[in-house]
Amino acid sequence: MKGxxxxxxxxxxxxxxxxxxxxxxxxxxxxxxENRYQLIAFITDEVCQAAKARRRDDSAKPHRAHLKAVSTPxxxxxxxxxxxxxxxxxxxxxxxx
Length: 97
Description:
Blueprint: H1 6-13, H2 17-31, H3 36-60, H4 64-71, H5 92-96
Helix pairs in contact: 1-2
């Protein structure tokens, strides 16, 4: 998307030019597109649609202040404390340290 040539892509990826061309050809074939300009337009359109959908989903959700109140832990919940006799015994290796 940044306008790199196939040779530049190959160099960045540490591959040969023919590999990049083959892989791009496979992408174009599978996507039904003919060139990188169509691919960029397709990806850009998909990203814009996803962003719009996310914005719609986010506007339907309650504000963060409400979520914070819901996710606050219950102070009356029981907490299990591990006492000294419940801990795993020290191994010889741990005892030497």
